[in-house]
Amino acid sequence: MTRWILSWGQHVQVMEPVELRERIQNEVQLMAQRHSVQPHALAMDLSPSS
Question: pTM of this prediction?
Fold first, then answer.
């Protein structure tokens, strides 16, 4: 069920049960961490290539 809910993206909000809401919240946080730009990665991307 988690994948189905996540497939709705920003168009869904889980209200209850609380356990499902927390599971979805955890997954979204993990996705945000995975797709965020890390300062050291950005610095590496901006460095001149040899």
Answer: 0.67
Q: Are 24 and 14 in contact (CB under 8 A)?
A: yes
Burial of 31 per CB tally in 10 Å (0-12, 13-18, 19+): exposed
Q: What would the pLDDT profile of 4-49 be if each residue is shown by its tens digit?
A: 999 999 999 999 999 999 999 999 999 988 888 666 655 555 555 5
The two three-digit tokens of residue 13, written as one number: 């909000």
Contact between residue 37 and residue 16 where contact means Cβ atoms under 8 Å apart: no
**In contact, 28 and 22? CB cutoff 8 Å:** no
Is the Cβ–Cβ distance between 2 and 24 less than 8 Å? yes
Nearest alpha carbon to residue 17 among 9, 7, 5, 29:
5
